[in-house]
Write a structure and sequence with these properties.
Elements (H helix, E strand, L loop, with lengths): L1 H34 L15
């Protein structure tokens, strides 16, 4: 019975760790996406009047 309780505790601990890790990764990706600005399509050339 003790083995089953330990196995259950380890399974729950691993599930919590997985959810926590996924949450951290999502936060990191969200912050990275918010700091990156859209700079248009390709390099920007200066506008010249002729």
């Amino acid at each position: 019975m003790l083995i089953y309780m330990l196995a259950t505790a380890m399974t729950v601990a691993m599930l919590i760790a997985t959810v926590f890790g996924l949450h951290q990764e999502a936060q990191r990706i969200r912050v990275k996406a918010n700091t990156k600005r859209f700079e248009g399509f390709g390099p920007r050339k200066p506008y010249r009047h002729y």
